[in-house]
Amino acid sequence: MARLLPQDTRGILRARTGLERFQVERIAPPAPLVPFVEFLWVLHWDLRGRPPHRQKLLTRPNVHMTFTSYFTGTRTRARIVGVVRDEFVEEIGDDGRVVGVGFRPGGFRPFAGGPVSALTGRFAGVDEVFGAAGLALADEIFATDGAEDAVALLAEFLAGLRPGADPSIERAAEIVERIAALPGLVRVDELAADVGLSVRGLQRLFHEYVGIGPKRVIRRYRMLEAAGRAEAGTPVDWAGLAAELGYTDQAHFTRDFTTAVGTPPARYARETGACASHGADSADSAGALGGASGEGDAGGAGGTSGGGAGKIDV
What is the pTM of this model? Predict the structure, then answer.
């Protein structure tokens, strides 16, 4: 019997609205896949007779493999979703299901057979990595009515490939977990020293195993923390949060938040039902003075930039 994981809405922007339109479950991976897979997942929706829903996400540095069934019209799509370089917007309509797997940061490397960065910002057919066996798996999943059975097929397929142990996977995953636990972290050189690597060695590890540079990962987790605080329903001291996240001024924080989320932080908090926030007016006006700007990281692709939405169908 599959073990469900606790609900985790981090990165689902305006999650309360989204969860009124779709249901998502995360499932713990079986023991042979634990070194490689963070979770398996199933998303259901039924919007027949209702308008389509566009969901924006702040993604984390995970590669996903997804099998989407659009029940109305009987369309299907099987893809490997590389680490997302820009913003992720998914539109759903009518009714359907996605069966997917989210790999740990670094965990897709033994399946990819090469640097994970080769998939960054790309959506590859399952056959590009897994050949005819991947296409056969897709056919099986699409022909399976029960979501639990479909998840089992996916897990069995990956476990049957018997990926070899690789200590660099664990190293990469641990470093990403450290970044997530330290949202005030700003400097790549400080992170490198903390984990006992040179800056260049850290960048090489992330290029090969994670798919985007450490600077991008740091910035993305800062925004995930900020969005989570904004949507938590408790008052937020925006100036204090900016300082906590390592910003030297509130205006810079507000610009980055607006670029990543699409809305200034205090307004986002109000619109998502959060309580009144300390310094709300100044938080939004500070960013308005400078306008939204992209992150401009030359050290690696990923995160959110000011270049416009990239609509992605998983």
Answer: 0.86
